[in-house]
Amino acid sequence: MRKSEVLAAESVACLNKALCHLKDIWEEIGIPEDQRLQRTNVVKNHIKGLLDMMITEEESLRTRLLSSIKSCRKQLDTLCLELQLPPFEEERGVTMLQQEKEIRTQVEVLVKERTQRMQQLKALTERDQDLCDTLCSDPYALDPNAVPSLEQLDGFRQHIASQTTEKERRHAEFVGIKRQIILCMDDLDQLPETSFEKDIVCEDQEAFCLSKDNIASLKLLLGELEERKAENQAVCEAHREKIQELWDRLQVPQEERELFSEHMVASKKKNLDALEAEGRRLMELKRLSMRNVTEAIRSEIAVLWEKCFFSSDQQQAFVPYFSNDFTEELLGLHEAEILRLKQHYEEHKELFEGVHRWEESWRLFLELEEKATDPSRFTNRGGNLLKEEKQKAELHKSLPKLEKKLKAQIDVWEQGQAREFLVNGQKFLQFVEEQWELHRIKKENEKLERQLKKSKQIEVDMLYGTAVRTPTKRRFLGTTTPSKTRKVPSVRTPGRSKPPLAGLQERNKENMGLVTGLGVPLQSARPLPGH
């Protein structure tokens, strides 16, 4: 039996005992039956009223519990729907009170969960709005009034993290570009003019809108400034080259140049102004020293003639070179000519350098050939003889390869330029063939000369009898007297340097003289010889 049932039985017993006690009191007092009945009815009504009141209160409690259960169930369903959770499953076999408590507790938990999610959503939305204001981007697509799911919150956090990273990247890019813009403006001595430029340079960099359009505009502005800066640098560099050239021609003292050294490096506006002023000053000095400058240019022209292997006819074609009327017009003609020659040399530099390499190799080859006829070389004990023979063999192999390479380069050049590539007024490959032919004829002449001497010696021996040979045999080997040569006439120019035409002619005049005694005319070209 439940304790509540025992307690109820005790209450009934207590009530019966109380009534019996009242009955004894009434009998002892002598209260009449009708009054006893009346008094008993009062007791009954009192107890009944008390019990009715208690029943009413308990029924009210039951009603409240049922109402609470209903309300909590409804709220719980709404919360599960808002939080995107599965419906709540109630525990079976529990009392109404336990059921109400369980449902109410679950409601409180979900209400707290919803509050936390909404607070997180609010914080994320505020952070997103700040990022949107800075990056000028659209807000994250999430209803700020609806309860987000855990997945939506995670997605929102990832979006915030991505936007934050993008903001940091753009901010770093902005700071870097801003620094370069300020440096460019400083180099150009330029102040911010437009509102956009003022926002960049003057405003707080944290308040600058880091939109894609603004970043693109920043890059565009930087590109324009760098282009102007590059133009200034190019102009300054052109002034520097001209100033350096005038310094050299006017023989300006080094001390005076060093005083101007600051402007020969930087390219700011003040440097450009200083360079322009110095250029004007030097031009005035140049005008006053026209003859010296013209002579200096002529020396440079003579060097370029030699580098470019100009023939005497090509040199004579520049008539102003031989004029002594030193005027501004004459100087201008010389300046234009040296610019043309420099451009000509740069355009064909690879070919000219190849010709120079062949020329040096050929000169060395002829020197080694000449040494081969010297009898004193056999007295050498230092190994030079072997080295020279090895070097001569290597040159004999490398020269045809170099000639073949030059032929390919010349063919390409002539196809592109639609004209012949001339060196000293003659096709270079024809000149090379002639040199090899002259070398071959020289060798044959030397051989014939040795045979002739030997024949004469035999005749002498046969005429006067056999003579005892002495060490004069070794001396005989070295008594070959080189043929006398006639120098090739060269064209003298009024300049200070040796005429450039003398280069190849002087180096090969011995071979040319052995065969013909005359200079070799540079006329036409034939294919490479099969040497």
Automatic annotation (TrEMBL):
Keywords recorded for this protein, A-Z: Coiled coil
Coiled-coil annotated spans: 222-285, 431-461
Endpoints of the signal sequence: none
Family matches, as InterPro entries: MAP65_Ase1_PRC1
Region (Disordered): 477-514
Domain of life: Eukaryota
Transmembrane regions: none
Entry keyword annotation includes Coiled coil: yes
Record-given protein name: Protein regulator of cytokinesis 1 isoform X7
Native species: Salmo salar
Record lineage: Eukaryota, Metazoa, Chordata, Craniata, Vertebrata
